[in-house]
Design goal:
Length: 445
């Protein structure tokens, strides 16, 4: 009988058309076409249930279910939209043409997230064809993750019964720079705001700076009151009140996280010292405030001696999983008022709460045990939660599903960048891990 990895090698090319669909939510490109392709594929794979959910706004969400003779269910979350390709001159090949070179699959979405979804579909195809599907398997595939999953809560709330499961395996992940599989129990939250100020009804001549305030000076002076100089400490009253507590066992995982400050500084050519003495804990659990961009006045070539009337800044907060994104925006406005900058107006743009799995949950332990069986006892790095944001809260917090994340990437996969790629050898390892987890979940009491 053909093995799972042999089957994958033979059938990965069946998904070239899927990869080559230019599916970009930010540009509303091919979302319907890609959803239709997936619906047809799930039917071809003989899913027992295939549904298209679009009754709560946004692009189509695809739900599929493969039923087995089991009372256990695993839910796979994925998304079919990708990031834009960026500058095509940075690519060594067409971003939307599948290229196989040096054991790598190279195409936009190879990792995030089409490659992860394809890997899971190949797994189910194999298990169905060989009559080995050990548990019920569900898929929820959305089409707007790359622009914030703004409708996901409506869908998970509306379809709670459909989405019930004993374990949710999140969209994917990667090995770290030392080749260890990173398994994470969730994601940080994020809050994105805009802060703006107006100081006059028109731009003024810069000679009037003798007596008239300029908007950009007012803005940067106000923003400077929100963070301690030389550290990452946020100076907003109440912002640390709902930061998650860390248990002794969780602290051990944080301390075991591999982080080389010298290498990080060297690789990124950091021009300033690190902002914290404990970057591991800061990455996993502490909020941050970042000015993403500033807009004001004249910025074209040459000189224009103007005193700008308007300035604004885009800011994001990375949050501890339990923090409320909208509350952070409110606290920011209150702090600016308290600091004497009531004219700086905060506008909440978008945000997502975080999520962190309970490390003592038996099914989370099961995943870690199986990962170590496949990758070796020292080949796995568990992280309490990833340092980026995503809609895991809609499943982990709102639906109460144990949630875990791992995937087919590596430290050179260039997710969101040019020449996005994955190694077929990494795909094969993850396929083996997926299969083991499904079988062990079925055995769990």
């Amino acid at each position: 009988m053909t093995s799972l990895t042999e089957f994958a090698r033979a059938h990965f090319k069946d998904y070239d058309e899927f990869f080559e669909l230019k599916t970009i939510a930010a540009q509303h490109l091919n979302q319907k076409e890609t959803a239709d392709w997936l619906i047809a594929k799930f039917k071809e794979l003989k899913a027992d249930v295939v549904e298209e959910w679009n009754d709560h706004g946004g692009p189509s969400n695809i739900f599929a279910e493969f039923k087995a003779d089991s009372d256990k269910t695993v839910l796979f979350y994925n998304h079919y939209d990708t990031q834009p390709e960026g500058d095509v001159n940075d690519w060594d090949s067409d971003p939307y043409q599948v290229t196989v070179k040096d054991g790598k699959l190279i195409v936009r979405g190879a990792l995030d997230d089409k490659g992860e979804l394809v890997t899971r579909l190949i797994l189910i195809d194999y298990l169905k064809q060989t009559n080995q599907l050990p548990v019920n398997v569900k898929f929820f595939v959305e089409g707007e993750e790359e622009i914030g999953s703004s409708h996901i809560v409506e869908y998970t709330n509306a379809y709670q019964e459909r989405l019930k499961a004993d374990l949710c395996i999140w969209e994917g992940g990667a090995k770290n720079s030392k080749g260890k599989l990173v398994v994470s129990g969730g994601l940080k939250g994020v809050s994105c705001i805009e802060v703006g100020v107006e100081t006059a009804n028109t731009d003024l001549h810069s000679s009037q700076a003798s007596y008239a305030e300029s908007a950009p000076w007012r803005l940067v002076q106000g923003l400077a009151t929100l963070r301690e100089v030389g550290t990452n400490r946020i100076l907003i009253d109440g912002i640390y009140d709902d930061v998650d507590s860390i248990s002794d066992e969780e602290k051990q995982y944080v301390e075991g996280y591999e982080f080389d400050p010298d290498k990080i500084s060297q690789d990124s050519e950091l021009a300033r010292p690190l902002l914290t003495d404990d970057p591991k804990l800061a990455l996993v659990n502490e909020p941050t405030i970042t000015i993403n961009g500033l807009t004001s006045g004249y910025q074209k070539e040459g000189v224009k001696t103007v005193l700008p009337r308007f300035a604004k800044a885009k800011i994001d907060f990375r949050l501890s999983p339990n923090q409320d994104p909208e509350r952070v925006a409110q606290l920011t406005q209150q702090q600016l008022i308290k600091n004497g900058f009531s004219d700086l107006k905060v506008k909440y743009l978008v945000g997502q709460p975080g999520y962190r799995a309970d490390i003592t949950d038996p099914v989370i332990r099961l995943v870690l045990e199986q990962a170590k069986e496949v990758y070796g006892p020292t080949g796995v790095q568990y992280v309490l939660n990833d340092f980026v944001a995503g809609p895991a809260y809609a499943f982990g917090r709102n639906l109460g599903l144990p949630l875990i994340n791992y995937g087919i990437g590596n430290s050179s996969s260039n997710m969101h960048g040019a020449n996005e790629n994955v190694l077929f050898s990494d795909i094969e390892q993850v396929l083996i891990l997926h299969e083991r987890i499904l079988r062990e979940v079925n055995k769990q009491g």
